[in-house]
Write a structure and sequence with these properties.
Elements: H1 5-77, H2 82-88, H3 92-99, H4 106-119, H5 157-162, H6 166-187
Helix pairs in contact: 1-6
Length: 188
């Protein structure tokens, strides 16, 4: 080889090496751009999920609050007072017989009835579905439902599909209690 051809070959080799490095750099830049776009999409999706989660929690809290307000309105309709009982029954004796309670005055009758009512939860007299939580029972007492240890609840068919046993019902109710407690604490 002569001296002239050596520098030309080195120049061509350096040019090829430079082109290869530029090519690699371009590919890395393209891959980085793709990764940045993918990361951006992932972060956007995560933000959307978080927003939907917050919205869903707020909707659940609103539904529970609405149900609790409705229950409170219904329960306020069932609170006894002396005037209502006097209108419903001719004598205190008739009222005592009707409620099967031993009391000495209208006021004590009202107090016992309201105390018994405030200790009861959702109780239905007849089943609405074939799904019954048979592992629970109601302890009988002089005042109906006054000393309930466990409670039998009859579930509607659509609810029974989602809560197939007492454990599932209790877990769901505990979740609602936590959600409403947290929401109540946050609003104070």
């Amino acid at each position: 080889m002569n001296k002239k051809s050596l520098p030309t070959t080195q120049k061509k080799g350096k040019a090829r090496l430079g082109d290869q490095i530029r090519s690699i750099a371009d590919r890395l830049k393209q891959e980085t751009d793709v990764q940045i776009q993918a990361t951006s999409r992932i972060l956007g999706a995560a933000a959307q999920i978080a927003e939907n989660h917050d919205r869903l929690i707020n909707e659940v809290v609103d539904m529970v609050e609405s149900d609790l307000n409705l229950e409170k309105q219904v329960s306020q309709k069932h609170i006894y007072n002396v005037d209502i009982l006097k209108q419903q029954f001719k004598t205190l004796r008739d009222a005592k017989v009707h409620f099967n309670l031993k009391v000495s005055s209208w006021e004590s009758l009202v107090n016992k009835l309201n105390a018994a009512y405030s200790q009861t939860t959702i109780i239905q007299n007849k089943p609405q579905s074939n799904q019954v939580l048979t592992d629970n029972h109601v302890k009988k007492s002089e005042v109906p439902y006054k000393n309930i240890e466990k409670l039998t609840v009859f579930l509607e068919p659509d609810v029974a599909e989602m809560f197939p046993n007492s454990e599932a019902v209790n877990e769901g109710l505990r979740f609602l209690i936590r959600v409403t407690s947290k929401n109540h604490s946050a609003s104070l």
